């Protein structure tokens, strides 16, 4: 069944109140639409774990830089609605701009450490935009559980940290990255890749997998970053923003592999007109 579309927060709260008084749990999956299997895996997991699922579709302008793809970001409300229905979602929340930014943009949620490195260094203001909009949406929906993809690993850490710091009553969980058959992480932005670029793009996952193996066998993070950058450029990437081994908990730089610690390899690189990101656990 197709989910009901709700476009304003008053209607949303009225709808959710009936479930909440009955003691039923609410799952939440925030998205920017143009939905693919990655998003739908989150929606299906939410439907398994909670009584009712709300998925939001909102292309949040405050997380795009001035030269980024806000105006060409893919949009497909009818297609998204059908997919969400098949995934077990009850409400598709498509807020209008004034529902999210009723008086413009004054109050912001800033994570000056976690939000300024890696993605934050290359996309200034990005995590302020993300943390602010996710905080707003979590306050509007007040879900029991909210699901995010590990595809955006730093974003997952930012949202978890924000929810902890702001004493939000929602449990935040991350779920594994869903990939195409050749390993490329699914992304709404993969449509920007030309035919040949799409084939070359699979190198990103291959290189970070190799990097994980070499890091485990003792190679230094610094040498590995250099090596991986060369591999990506040879594979057809136009430029590499970063490809780096980090502590999996706080994304700080690391010296060497240690079996007792958790690490994460994160990468961002440009292929044609697309900026691709990926990451894996070590
Ligand atoms: P977006 O629409 O790009 O803002 O993504 C909405 C949610 O879907 C975020 O929690 C993403 O991390 C998640 N997501 C996007 N792509 C994938 C993927 N390939 N696998 C798993 N989750 C994903």
Gist?
With 282 residues, this protein is an alpha/beta fold. It contains 10 helices and 9 strands.
Topology:
Layout: E1 4-6, H1 9-21, E2 26-31, H2 37-49, E3 52-57, H3 77-86, E4 91-93, H4 97-100, H5 119-122, H6 126-141, E5 145-149, H7 153-165, E6 171-175, H8 195-200, H9 203-216, H10 221-234, E7 239-247, E8 263-271, E9 274-281
Parallel strand pairs: 1-4, 2-3, 2-5, 3-4, 5-6
Antiparallel strand pairs: 7-8, 8-9
Could you walk me through the main structural features you see in this protein, from its secondary elements to its overall organization?
Helix content is 38%, strand content 19%. It has 282 residues and is an alpha/beta fold. It has two domains: 172 residues, 3-Layer(aba) Sandwich (Rossmann fold); 89 residues, Pantoate-beta-alanine ligase, C-terminal domain (Pantoate--beta-alanine Ligase, Chain: A,domain 2, 2-Layer Sandwich). The chain has a six-stranded parallel sheet, sandwiched between helices. Strands 7-8-9 form a three-stranded antiparallel sheet, covered by helices on one side. The radius of gyration is 19 Å and the shape is globular. The mean pLDDT is 98. It binds adenosine monophosphate. The site of adenosine monophosphate has 16 residues, from helix 2 and strand 5.
Largest sheet: 6 strands, parallel
Main β-sheet, spatial strand arrangement = 1-4-3-2-5-6
Mean pLDDT: 98
In CATH terms, the superfamily of the largest domain is HUPs
- The SSE string, one letter per element, is EHEHEHEHHHEHEHHHEEE
Strand content: 15-25%
User: Per CATH, which architecture of the largest domain?
Assistant: 3-Layer(aba) Sandwich
Question: Overall 3D geometry?
Answer: globular
Query: What's the total helix number?
Result: 10
Radius of gyration: 19 Å
Number of domains: 2
Question: Which bin fits the share of residues in helices?
Answer: 25-40%
Which structural class do the helices and strands define? alpha/beta
CATH topology annotation of the largest domain:
Rossmann fold
* End-to-end distance: 40 Å
């Amino acid at each position: 069944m197709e989910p009901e579309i709700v476009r304003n927060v008053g209607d949303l709260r009225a709808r959710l109140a009936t479930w909440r008084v009955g003691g039923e749990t609410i799952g939440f999956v925030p998205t920017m639409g143009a939905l693919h299997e990655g998003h739908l895996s989150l929606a299906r997991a939410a439907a398994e774990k909670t009584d009712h699922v709300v998925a939001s579709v909102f292309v949040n302008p405050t997380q795009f830089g001035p030269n980024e793809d806000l105006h060409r970001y893919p949009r497909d409300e009818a297609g998204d609605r059908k997919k969400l229905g098949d995934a077990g979602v009850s409400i598709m929340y498509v807020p209008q701009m004034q529902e999210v930014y009723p008086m413009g943009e004054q109050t912001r949620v800033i994570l000056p450490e976690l939000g300024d490195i890696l993605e934050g260094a290359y996309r200034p203001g990005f995590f302020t935009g993300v943390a602010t909009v996710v905080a707003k949406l979590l306050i509007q929906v007040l879900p029991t559980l909210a699901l995010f993809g590990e595809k955006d690993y730093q974003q997952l850490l930012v949202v978890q940290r924000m929810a902890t710091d702001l004493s939000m009553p929602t449990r935040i969980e991350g779920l594994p990255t869903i990939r195409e058959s050749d390993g490329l992480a699914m992304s709404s932005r993969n449509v920007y890749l030309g035919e040949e670029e799409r084939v070359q793009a699979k190198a990103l996952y291959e290189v970070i997998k190799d990097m994980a193996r070499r890091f485990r066998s003792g190679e230094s993070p610094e040498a590995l970053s250099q090596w991986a950058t060369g591999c990506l450029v040879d594979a057809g990437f136009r430029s590499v923003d970063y490809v780096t081994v980090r502590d999996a908990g706080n994304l700080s730089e690391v010296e060497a592999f240690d079996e007792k610690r958790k690490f994460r390899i994160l990468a961002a690189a440009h292929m044609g007109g697309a900026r691709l990101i990926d990451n894996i656990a070590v």
